[in-house]
Amino acid sequence: MDTPTARTNIVDVRSRSGEQVNDLLTGARAAVMRTLPAVLANVLDRADDALFDFVQKSSSSLEQQEYFDTMRELRRQRGVIEQRFREQIGVSFAALGRGQPIVVRCAPQTETEADRGLSLVGADELDEQLAAEQLAGALERRHSGPLHVLDRKLAVLAKVDTLGPATNPAGPGHVVNALRVALEGIVPALPPRLVLYKIYERDVQTALTALYAELSRLLVDVTVADPAAAAQARRRDVPKSPKYPSQYADTSLPTDEGVSSGYASGGGGYGSGSGAGHATASHDIDELLPTLRALLNEYRAARQSSEPAGAARVPTMDVHGTVSTLSNLQSELPQAVRSAIDDPSASLSVLLKQEVLRRAEQMGLTGPQSRLDERGEESLELVGMLFDALLGQRNFEHGVRDQMARMVVPYAKASLLDQQMFAMKSHPARRLLNTVAEACDGNRGETTAERELLGRVEGTVDRLVSDFNEDLAIFSELDVELRSFFDQHKQRVELTERRATEAQRGKERLDEARAMANCELAAVMGGRNAPPAIEQFLTHYWTHHIAVVALRDGVESSRFKLARDAGDQLWSAFLGSENGAPRPIDLRDHLVRVLGSSGVTGVSADETVGAIEWVLQALRLGRVEAAHSRQLPAVDSAPATATEAATPAAVSVSVPEVVESAVTADEATVPAVEAPVVAEALAAYEPEDVERVKALQVGNWVEFIGADGTPQPAKLSWISPISSRLLFVNRRGMRLCASSAEELAEQIKQGKMVLRAADSAFERAMSQVLGKLRDATPAK
Q1: DSSP labels for 431-483?
Q2: 726-729 and 711-719 strand pairing
Q3: pTM surpassing 0.85?
Q4: What is the enclosing helix (H) or strand (E) of 716?
Q5: How many other β-carbons are positioned within 10 Å of the β-carbon of residue 583?
Q6: How many other C-beta atoms lie within 10 A of the C-beta of residue 292?
Q7: Each residue of 220-253: pLDDT tens digit?
Q8: CA–CA dist 387, 393 (Å, integer)
Q9: For residues 557, 558, 563 and 568, what is the CA-based torsion angle, rounded to 10 degrees?
């Protein structure tokens, strides 16, 4: 019970001293250190029995040995594991105390791009990362309520803007990452690690419930701002606008002082990727709104001037009546409005206003021939135009469009209750609409993950329609929940995208190395012909060898110099033998080393070296015809030519189109989208289009238009530092195409590619509404 005595104990953290704040953070850290290491100890106690069960079930001697090795290492290095676990928790809390929370992704530490070269993320690493992320996601969903409160309280204590799944040291991300760090290098095999994750999951679920309850009691005195209350207080303080009657004063454009708090500062939520943080007023105010309102007023005035001059003044319905009517329409959208979604010629604004007036008359709120008041007209016009533009600019399937149509009435009502939805970029209603649009854009439900995402969107719309009365807080709550799930979906897609990028990088590095090897070959031979055996060795084996060494060690390394010298010495030996010079130095070691890169060893290598020595000897003896008739022995593992050489196994380069371990079986059966066909001879393109393509940043989205006119969203994933080609992936992170800026400019000229604006769906739709109003407003 919230008694006056109890309320006096609630003290704003800003009134506390720095020592008191540190004590609270120390207490939270101590609670976590008491709970989680105990969970780990219990896991290690039970690991022997669980792993031995898997030994008995396994039919593979290799897997059995992995389980036995893990059991031995867990017993031998238990102290190290527990120490690492505690240290990782301590590091996370120490970083939070400094106001620099650590971001975790449950992924192994990777080298920098420069150091990584052509190495790819292994399948075991991807599987472990997915298992860790799924475990963190399950913990997050189960404890989302307490975590939301805990995030905000710890953020206040640490004086940071927001905390979330990846930054809260007591959150699921850090809880799972601590286990991963503790086991790293000690349990190298994947199956035993996954067993330990499963045991950990069962124990930590219950432990976190008790831990979060304890932290809630510990931090009970820490209060955080209520965004909804702040917004209402701000609206009460906004001066009345002379543009509107007094009853509309709370909807006028907010002042700079008002914007700096409220939605802008309270918009973040657990798992939200779109919270505004502490946005400044200049960044949070949508600058389009004043122009949009002015044009809308001119548009409506021009339309009203066309009415008969002597028309009688008709009664108007006030805001309360309009809100009541919209509430009546909310549960079941009229068919006339739903049909406008798929009819480009229909105006959603007109149909929505007509339906509101018709239903209001049925409810007895107004009589025939009535109209909406000024505020109602403006709100329904804006919302109708917004959804018309939104559905026209995005690639939504029919089922998704139907769900979007159901959101029209709730958004019309939200606009009437608070027109800051159009004024503030961080308004929760805008964030929710942007999240829904992003989740559904181009989503055809072709995979299990995509269908599950569409199901979450449908559930979000169901809750909005059924639960929204006049409390705008539901928009923030729904956005937090949907964004949290969508972020997990995107993390899985990013794994596939990362592998596609690695594959493209490897392919380009390999192509560059092969081109360099052919240049070295041309420099050595100088356009001269040589006996087939020597020419075959240089073009097949030597160029392959120096490409491998260049990829592995770099062109500045001593190994590369030795590799290049091998070709130079063989060519010098050929020229000398051709001129009758004495037998050259022994080349056997050089030749054997070159052959080893192509897998030619043992007897095969001896036969190949023997053939080359025979040719050189024949040349010294003047038997030119015999030397030119001798071929190298056939070897199955030898590459065909320098430009067609197989990827060196020693460099571990592969170019898969899809990472099977990062997608479901359902997704793996979906064929990859073919890249746009680019003619060998580029058609004319506009230089400004080339510059627009070059201005794209990694993460930007474009659209490729198929032969049937269907747009395919594509994300710029990587720009090659070697060829400057741009790699695009589809919504599932799979490679779509890799093209030059000129090729893409040609696609733009042919109408096969469209560059998307960088703004969110809401802002882009408002810009389109602005353009339509400018076109429709008579010139003065």
Answers
A1: HHHHHHHHHHTT----SHHHHHHHHHHHHHHHHHHHH-SS-THHHHHHHHHHH
A2: antiparallel
A3: no
A4: strand 711-719
A5: 12
A6: 20
A7: 777 655 444 444 443 444 333 333 333 333 333 3
A8: 10
A9: 110
